[in-house]
Design brief:
378 residues, five-stranded antiparallel beta sheet, 18% strand
Length: 378
């Protein structure tokens, strides 16, 4: 708006209608700029208005006959400009203080909802990464957690359909149910069922969710269990399959029986879920992630090549360094423009001599399925 006013005044002064007195109109431009442009923008607007004032007076040869009026316009512009710069600086300081307070609250909320994963959990080393697509947000619709239990290390990663507070509420409910159930449910499938039941109870509370969310909302979720044995158990409810990096080659742990996401189980008759077992030996790396990773596109609309990127990262990296390299590759691929939230958990199987779960033996008697049953993620 300030620049539009300056342009309009300049057009009038350089036209046959230059007899109109436009100086007082220019005086308003710094005040308008102070509302949105900050101190530097306000000052530049004031300088531009002064330049237009001087240009119009010179072009119309008004210095001799209207000198007092021109000086009055300059004086008014100067006073308003000084006041506007001071006001703009005060508004900017206050706005920055409010933003800092919101960020502190967001950080506290993130630490409660998505707390950091310990670097060492029983037989594995671990690291996590979460990126919110929304500008300025710290918590999005993705969820993750890793907990050491009597049955081994149990992990969850999920993606809530939707954004905003509704998605964050579903994230909190799902993680709360997971953190409680994984310690007393010996069957990983039952822990997943507890999360499903918690979401149903939450949806039954009147006014908690809108009708649209109740009709169309769902949560894709994947749970994994790493016992002391050289296997990983997986229960997948409509989520992208985890990837295992084994001797430099990535394998996708595809489910034998696809299952619907949490919240859509009514669409399937006779739903029976069970944990599926896959090899996970010393030196292997297991990556759990959300679809924001594999669906990230570049300018040519190509998807992010997650398996190939994993295979290109040095084997000597720690889990945290590995995720950081994945993060940088993702940023390069998308040009820094994430269109969806991203969450990842990476776990490394440790040497038996250094593993030591410290929480009792892991689940026993599980048979491992060979890697030939898994398919490479394309």
């Amino acid at each position: 708006m300030p620049f539009a006013i300056v342009l309009a005044v300049l057009s009038i002064e350089l036209s046959p209608a230059h007899d109109l007195v436009t100086g007082p109109v220019l005086t308003t431009t710094p005040a308008l700029a102070a509302l949105t442009m900050g101190p530097l923008g306000t000052l530049s607007t004031a300088v531009l208005a002064a330049g237009v004032n001087a240009t119009s007076a010179t072009y119309n040869q008004s210095w001799g006959t209207l000198t007092q009026l021109i000086i009055g316009n300059f004086l008014g512009l100067f006073v308003v400009s000084v006041a506007s710069v001071i006001l703009s600086n005060a508004m900017r300081t206050r706005r920055q203080g409010e933003i800092d307070q919101v960020r502190r609250i967001a950080v506290a909320a993130q630490e409660v909802v998505l707390r950091p994963i310990p670097e060492r959990l029983g037989p594995v080393r671990a690291a996590s990464l979460c990126l919110a697509a929304e500008t300025g947000a710290l918590v999005g619709g993705d969820l993750y957690e890793a907990v050491q239990t009597p049955y081994g290390v149990r992990l969850i990663v999920g993606d809530v359909r939707g954004k905003g507070l509704t998605a964050m509420r579903a994230v909190a409910v799902t993680l709360g149910a997971f953190r409680v159930s994984v310690h007393y449910e010996d069957d990983l499938t039952e822990a997943m069922n507890c999360c499903e039941a918690a979401l149903r109870r939450e949806a039954a509370v009147p006014g908690t969710y809108s009708q649209e969310v109740l009709m169309e909302g769902f949560v894709t979720a994947l749970m994994a269990q790493v016992p002391d044995e050289d296997v990983v158990l997986v229960v997948n409810r409509g989520h992208p399959p985890p990837l295992v990096l084994h001797r430099g080659s990535v394998q996708a742990l595809m489910p034998g029986t696809p299952l619907p996401p949490l919240g859509l189980e009514d669409l399937v008759d006779g739903l029976t879920a069970k944990a599926e077992s896959y090899p996970f030996v010393r030196g292997d790396r297991l990556l759990l992630y959300t679809d924001g990773v594999i669906e990230a596109r570049n300018r040519d609309n190509d998807f992010f090549p997650l398996p190939e990127t994993m295979e290109g990262i040095r084997a000597s990296t720690t889990p945290r360094e590995f995720l950081e390299e994945l993060h940088q590759a993702l940023i390069r691929h998308t040009g820094g423009r994430l269109t969806d939230d991203v969450a990842m958990i990476l776990v490394d199987r440790l040497d038996e001599d250094t593993a030591g779960s410290g929480y009792g033996p892991g689940a026993r008697g599980q048979t491992a399925r060979s890697y030939s049953s898994a398919h490479r993620l394309s």
